[in-house]
Amino acid sequence: MSSDSMTTGTAETAPDHTVAGVDVGDAALAAMLRERLGDVETMLVDRLASGEDFLSEVALHLVTAGGKRFRPLMTLLTGHLGPQPDTDRLVKAAVVCEMIHLATLYHDDVMDEATMRRGVESANSRWDNSTAILAGDFLFAHASMLLADLGPAAVQLIAQTFAELVTGQMRETVGPGAYDAADGAAGGAADGAAGGTFDEAEHYLRVIWEKTGSLIAAAAQFGGEYSGADAEQIARLRRLGDAVGIAFQIADDIIDIASPSGDSGKTPGTDLREGVHTLPMIYALEADSPDSPRLRELLAQPLTDDAEVAEALDLLRASDGMRRARATLEKYVDDAMTELDALPAGPANEALRRLVRFTVDRVG
User: Fold this and answer.
1) Is 169 within a domain?
2) Cβ(216)–Cβ(241) under 8 Å?
3) Fewer CB atoms near the end CB (10 Å): N or C, the chain?
4) How many domains does the chain have?
């Protein structure tokens, strides 16, 4: 047998530790997660395909486009930290989280006037704004029906989460300085200082917790609720979700600036073209350097010229803002690891650690 044949044979029989592109470190856990995510996908499609054809077609548009299914994965993984996981209820809770997430994407695309989502034409572009909004509402309705099966506590959790999602969208719309931190920052992993007005960085961290972290925190909490975890463990799982949600968004901010074109599967500078100030930009604008005046000039409005986008990316990559953003990312990663240190050890805990570290590794 040639050395090539031996290599091929080994590759074919090697255990598969990956789920959704992440090495979870344990083949048996990975196989179980892939099976359960398959159950999530089946329930998701079956539920949304059960309505009128003209509704189902639009509601399934983003489902069939793919996606990481990160929130269902969080529910399933955290569920395996509990002593008595209830597989059926965990799957149903995971589907609820994904439906809520998908519904917000339909609505976000209308607000942002987006033309693409997950590599396909956005629903508002393919059909119209009204159709996209109604498709999101249809997803919320199906999520509510599943929540009714899970009970009042689940309904309350998602109602609270939905309020946080809406608050985050509104907070982003009104911008920093339009509210008092003491009144507007109760709860969550990204609170600003008590009293006074949020600065732009505090505002941005609060927004990404409300818009991203809150639903991931709910997904992690569901894992504890439906696996028999005690109250302290459930609280830790929620804080874990808080930290992971913020870390993932900050990582995306960094990738949008730092990654060479094509490396991340995204076009660098998307946020610059949309006029969105992400955390590295906010930190860079706070700095006082020879490049600051030009950077402030470039970031004063959305950029449409490719040369200006390239110039802004070069200045941001060399700025102290990138260093500070990476340090903030590491802080939330450390927060997540602290919660995992106090949660039950085992393959699921190690898988969550790998998932958290993947957040940092993917920014390079």
Assistant:
1) yes
2) yes
3) N
4) 1
Please report, rounded to a whole number, the percentage of residues in the chain having pLDDT higher than 70.
Answer: 88
Q: What is the pLDDT of residues 274-329, one digit of tens each?
A: 898 999 999 999 998 899 999 999 999 999 999 999 999 999 999 999 999 999 99
Q: Kindly report the three-state secondary structure assignment for every residue of the chain.
A: CCHHHHHHHHHHHCCCCEECCEECCCHHHHHHHHHHHHHHHHHHHHHHCCCCHHHHHHHCHHHHCCCCCHHHHHHHHHHCCCCCCCHHHHHHHHHHHHHHHHHHHHHHHHHHCCCEECCEECHHHHCCHHHHHHHHHHHHHHHHHHHHHHCHHHHHHHHHHHHHHHHHHHHHHHCCCCCCHHHHCCCCCCCCCCCCCCCHHHHHHHHHHHHHHHHHHHHHHHHHHCCCCCHHHHHHHHHHHHHHHHHHHHHHHHHHHHCCCCCCCCCCCHHHHHCCCCHHHHHHHHCCCCCHHHHHHHCCCCCCCHHHHHHHHHHHHCCHHHHHHHHHHHHHHHHHHHHHHCCCCCHHHHHHHHHHHHHHHCCC
Percent of the chain's residues with pLDDT above 90 = 64
Question: Is 114 within a domain?
Answer: yes
**Residue 16 lies inside a defined structural domain of this protein:** no
12 in any annotated domain: no
This prediction has a pTM of 0.88
Q: Which two tokens stand for residue 251?
A: 């990582």
Mean pLDDT, the chain, integer: 86
- Full residue range of the structural domain in which residue 285 is found: 24-361
In this structure, what CATH number is given to the domain that contains residue 289?
A: 1.10.600.10
User: What pLDDT was estimated at residue 343?
Assistant: 97
